[in-house]
Amino acid sequence: MVTIAVRVKPGASRTRVGGHHDGPHGPALVIAVTAPAVGGRATEAARRALAEALGVRRSAVALRTGAASRDKLFTVDADPTEVADRLSALRADPR
Questions:
Q1: Phi then psi for 44, rounded to 5 degrees?
Q2: CB 4, CB 77: distance < 8 Å
């Protein structure tokens, strides 16, 4: 299991995963989503986008903390080495 710090940017023109943000939980991956920050829709969209970017099942990604914040922690139930490799590529290359 891996914990990933994420900075969510709701209301974007398109969904994209990539980039780096120095957040309260340490270095965070930036996820822009088209969903608004209402009723958990942006959080759910970010969870799905993270799963797709990491190449894991959506059910393998769960919100740990930050439901009402742009700064969130997600847990990913996957091989830590593979997740770390994909994360470093995503943080370095904003899409």
A1: -65, -40
A2: no
Number of compact structural domains in the chain: 1
The tens digit of pLDDT for each residue in 36-57 reads 999 999 999 999 999 999 999 9
- Give Cα separations from 6 to 66, 81, 86 (angstroms): 10, 18, 14
Q: E strands within the chain? A: 2-9, 16-23, 26-32, 61-65, 71-76
Instruction: Give CA–CA dist 65/13, Å, rounded.
Output: 26
Q: Is the pTM of this model over 0.85?
A: yes
Contact 12, 33 (CB under 8 A): yes
Structural domain containing residue 26: 2-92
